[in-house]
Design goal:
With 142 residues, the protein is of the alpha+beta class. It is built from four helices and six strands, in the order E-E-E-E-H-E-E-H-H-H. It folds into two domains: 95 residues, Nucleic acid-binding proteins (OB fold (Dihydrolipoamide Acetyltransferase, E2P), Beta Barrel), CATH 2.40.50; 32 residues, no CATH class. The longest helix is centred in the middle third of the chain and has 10 residues.
């Protein structure tokens, strides 16, 4: 099984490209994830992961994510290789995102002044909410 879950902040705004073969939108960005433990006397450290999204998820990333946004990403690890300009084989490991959820507080998202909050809220409301489970009579898992 190849499953990766990361919680972190974007280090810069996503870059948008289109594939040459079939013109699919691709969004790439780096995610800084704080390490859980630090040595005494040292500052907390972070790991930086390269994230790639495609098609509709890339549209979502382009529209709603920017530098500093905290997100939870689930996806898979992928390794690829290529030859650089000097003919040296390079290997790259990336996370292919399959799901992205906001992890910032609602008030932080609410601070947007360009009406994106209304759109973000509408997109988030498409998923089942706690109220949906209660109204359906299903037991909550907590």
């Amino acid at each position: 099984m190849n499953k990766t879950i990361l919680l972190g902040r974007l280090t810069k705004s996503p870059e948008i490209k289109f594939s040459q073969a079939n013109n699919v939108k691709i969004a790439t960005f780096s995610l800084a994830v704080n390490r859980k433990y630090t040595k005494k006397g040292e500052e907390s450290q972070a790991d930086f992961f390269n994230i790639i999204t495609f098609s509709k998820l890339a549209d979502f990333v382009e529209k709603f994510l920017n530098q500093g946004t905290q997100v939870c990403i689930s996806g898979r690890l992928q390794t690829r290789n290529y030859e650089d300009k000097n003919g040296i084989r390079r290997y790259v490991t990336e996370v292919i995102a399959e799901e992205i959820d906001f992890a910032d507080s609602y008030t932080k998202l609410e601070g947007n002044t360009d009406n994106t909050q209304e759109t973000v809220s509408n997109n988030l409301n498409e998923k089942n909410t706690q109220e949906d489970f209660i109204s359906n009579g299903d037991d909550l898992p907590f």
